[in-house]
Task: inverse folding
């Protein structure tokens, strides 16, 4: 994960780390009704064990080196009884809005991966 | 690239283990030399630290490699559709989860296992079920097929045809159920509570 070069102010440059985008996406996703949990990977589990405070699960923020576009990949487990395309669309909208609101950046794509269904 | 590296990692490890086995079997290296080297390494603290660190590194690398490989396997088995904001992929294990949860709601079913495959023709579901004896199999299986196909189409928003094949593996009678529950009761009776019934 790299650091995103942001706008420059009179005091200096503002850089946003991809982890920040992942954390915003994580928190925004949790707010959506129908999301049971966000999947964790080995890296995020290890970071949690080491005491990393802001969780981002296995959310992957990819940055295109050529055109600087962002793709956010969110692995999810959906609550049983909810319509999956509807929940996925709501997550995409919510994450897009949260990232735009917090960073003024517009993600090109928010890919959702449904990994499971649970109560 | 990452998968190729993971496969390369496992290949190297297995090749090293294989070579060691061949060397041991063919007596290419004297066993006494190995013992001497091991003793030398054991006495040197620095060397022990290096060997320990290498061990931890190898474990972490193997876990990471395993995750990459299994992650790729999971990634391949998905159903995908696109939304205006990006792609949504549903793993087939999520479909299996849903089928399991649906099956739990039906009283006639004792056990159910589902295997989901996505083909060009549509989604192919194979179920292995254990039913209760009082169940009418043709009626129940037809109802189960309808329920699963409709629910998956509704929940995942899939337009492709869904075929549900059911294999009734076993039928459990009420006697079998009683047999399974009886020993538990007798075990409970055997366990005596000390000073039971004593009045102070």
Result:
């Amino acid at each position: 994960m790299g650091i995103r070069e942001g706008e420059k102010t009179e005091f200096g440059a503002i850089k946003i780390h991809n982890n920040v985008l992942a954390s915003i996406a994580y928190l925004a996703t949790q707010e959506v009704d129908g999301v049971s949990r966000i999947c964790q990977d080995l890296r995020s589990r290890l970071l949690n064990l080491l005491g990393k405070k802001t969780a981002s699960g296995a959310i992957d923020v990819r940055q295109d080196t050529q055109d600087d576009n962002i793709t956010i990949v969110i692995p999810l487990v959906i609550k049983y009884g909810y319509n999956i395309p509807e929940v996925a669309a709501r997550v995409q909208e919510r994450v897009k809005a949260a990232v735009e609101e917090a960073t003024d950046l517009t993600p090109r794509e928010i890919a959702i991966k449904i990994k499971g269904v649970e109560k | 690239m990452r998968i190729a590296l993971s496969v390369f990692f496992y290949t190297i490890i297995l090749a090293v283990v294989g070579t060691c086995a061949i060397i041991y079997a063919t007596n290419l290296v004297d066993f006494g030399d190995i013992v001497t080297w091991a003793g030398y390494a054991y006495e040197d603290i620095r060397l022990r630290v290096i060997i320990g660190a290498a061990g931890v590194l190898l474990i972490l690398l193997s876990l990471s490699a395993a995750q990459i490989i299994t992650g790729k396997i999971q990634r391949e088995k998905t159903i995908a559709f696109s939304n205006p904001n990006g792609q949504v992929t549903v793993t087939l294990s999520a479909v299996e989860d849903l089928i399991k949860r649906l099956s739990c709601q039906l009283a006639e079913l004792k056990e159910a296992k589902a295997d989901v495959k996505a083909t060009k023709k549509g989604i192919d579901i194979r179920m292995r079920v254990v039913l209760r004896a009082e169940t009418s199999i043709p009626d129940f299986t037809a109802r189960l097929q309808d329920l699963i196909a409709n629910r998956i189409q509704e929940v995942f928003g899939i337009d492709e045809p869904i075929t549900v094949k059911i294999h009734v593996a076993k039928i459990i009678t009420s006697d079998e159920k009683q047999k399974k529950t009886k020993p538990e009761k007798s075990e409970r009776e055997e366990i005596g509570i000390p000073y039971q019934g004593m009045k102070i």
